[in-house]
Amino acid sequence: MSFPINEEGLDKLKQFIALCKSSPAILHLPDLRFFKDYIESLGGKLPKASTMSSEPKVEPKEEVAPDTPEGIVESDPESELEFDMSGCVEPDKLDGNQKMGDPSKEVSEEDCDKADEKRMEAMSQLSEGNIEKAIELFTEAIELNPQSALLLAKRGQAYLKLTKPNACIRDCTRALELNCDSAAAYKFRGRAYRLLGEWELAAKDLRQACNIDFDEQTDEWLKEVTPNAKKIEEHLLKKERKKKEKEERERMERIRKARAAHERAAAQEKVDEDVPSASEGGTGMPGMGDFYKLLQDPEIMTAFQDPEVAQAFQDISMNPSNFVKYQSNPKIMALITKLSGKFAGSGMNFPGFPGTGASAGAAPGFMGFPGGFGGAPTENNSTQPPPAKPSDDDNLD
């Protein structure tokens, strides 16, 4: 009985078995249910999927960027930075109690006066530590005068005391929409960003607050976040620099490849144009490009690797009349016949080359080569000049 699986199928089966050995968990996949049932029908038992590794172990490989020159390994610009996160808190969730007032409300002088009274009460409660009551009073004041950036910034400060950084950020952001030069809004929002570990944003806001209205507490907070913010800034600059360097390398590589392709095309065009081919309306001599294409034939290339053949053709190229010395050499004549067939089949015409159409003054049996020299005479051919044509004065007498 012959084996029913060919060699290729057998190799694939061996690979599948090797995969099962290295990762037996795949036998629990739905697509391989038929194979699992077969193993169990033979009395075999498979361990539970939970006790088997679901994936084969693969050694980590160091990735090399394909387009980087000389296989330069680039470090990952997205690698995580290490920060001192002490003092950071979990972000708070915003709720519907944080009222912003009606932004379209027309605020009267009476509303402004009542809002100021509420603000004073809120500040008093805040100083006494009644933060929740202070937030309630600030909210009433904001509803009376929703166009006051100061009221929103102060309520943001109260939320900051309750360790609700997101609520503080929301109030201060609204305050800055109303007044982009509110130092208090920048100050408290910067502190809220610090509590969330947003170092770069914290430094930006606190720096802006110091520029508008410097105070010692804001400056102290700014010094606290500057080291981490500086790390981020340097990291982003390094990342951008690496990106630009990579883009420049890729651009230079594209230029190099395009230039090399252009040079190859120009060189090939020059070879083809050195001597015009017969198909291009030339003198009947094939171009060097055509000649070298013919020499790509495996038999011809193999023949020229024979020292005797190479020496013979070198001898003939030095002196075409030496051709007669090799007419009795079957090895040389076999190659000549092969070349004759190639030239004849390509439509090219080597003057005097056997089988390609002998030119005037060169009978079949001559051999011509690229370079312009004519064929050599055979034993049956004479090199005597043709008889002179009689002149009109002959036999006049």
Q: Could you state the CATH homologous superfamily of the largest domain?
A: Tetratricopeptide repeat domain
Low-confidence stretches: 50-79, 275-288, 349-387
Oligomer: single chain
CATH architecture annotation of the largest domain: Alpha Horseshoe
Q: Roughly what fraction of the amino acids lie in strands? A: under 5%
Gross morphology is: elongated
Mean pLDDT: 75
Rg, alpha carbons: 47 Å
Percent helix: 40-55%
- The CATH topology label of the largest domain is Serine Threonine Protein Phosphatase 5, Tetratricopeptide repeat
Order of helices and strands: HHHHHHHHHHHHH
Care to count the β-strands?
0
Instruction: State the end-to-end distance.
Output: 106 Å
Main sheet characteristics: none
The computed structural class is mainly alpha
**Whole-number count of domains:** 3
Q: Give the CATH class of the largest domain.
A: Mainly Alpha
Total helix count? Answer: 13
Architecture blueprint of SSEs:
Elements: H1 7-22, H2 33-41, H3 109-127, H4 131-144, H5 149-161, H6 165-178, H7 183-195, H8 199-212, H9 216-274, H10 288-294, H11 298-304, H12 307-318, H13 330-346
Helix pairs in contact: 3-4, 4-5, 5-6, 5-7, 6-7, 7-8, 8-9
